[in-house]
Design brief:
Layout: E1 23-28, H1 32-48, E2 56-61, H2 67-76, E3 82-90, H3 96-115, E4 119-126, H4 129-154
Parallel strand pairs: 1-2, 1-3, 3-4
Helix pairs in contact: 1-4, 2-3
């Protein structure tokens, strides 16, 4: 792994060369108007970074709590260089928001650590729909860049 901070990678940086990578995406269907946009932005950015369309696999699950289980199943296949978790949790009037946000986040982290596999966490946690809409496209793109950069970092000696 690299030792020094070389700054945020920009277009053309070898740290963002996804041409040889296989990327799996798990998308929660709950709040689909947001998660569909997140997933599309992520896929579009992966393609822009050189990931071949046939090397991107997208699966969907009911909600954010199911994302870690699907990530684990993909990690166990040993076919992916990185994974992306996509979901959207919007605060409501009950404790359910905290439960789903905390447990889905912990589950994503656990899979990444247990399998030593980079997972870009693009599960939005927002106060309202307006915040989710404002973040959906950029967070999807960011997740793609994180997945590629981390996959490249992990393949270094």
């Amino acid at each position: 792994m690299q030792d020094a901070d070389q700054g945020t990678p920009q277009a053309g940086d070898p740290r963002l060369d996804g041409s040889k990578l296989r990327i799996g995406i798990v998308q929660a269907r709950f709040n689909a108007s947001i998660t569909n946009t997140l997933a599309q932005a992520c896929k579009d950015e992966l393609l822009a970074l050189g990931v071949m369309p046939q090397k991107i696999k997208l699966i969907t699950v009911p909600g954010a709590l199911e994302v870690p289980v699907a990530l684990m199943a993909m990690a166990e296949q040993l076919e992916y260089d990185a994974l992306v978790a996509i979901g959207c949790i919007i605060r409501g009037e009950t404790y359910h928001f905290e439960l789903v946000a905390n447990e889905s986040g912990a589950g994503v982290s656990r899979v990444a650590l247990d399998y030593q596999l980079p997972i870009a966490n693009a599960i939005l946690t927002t106060e309202n729909m307006d915040q989710a809409v404002a973040r959906q496209t950029e967070k999807g793109r960011d997740a793609a860049r994180v997945a590629v950069e981390m996959a490249k970092l992990m393949e270094q000696d």
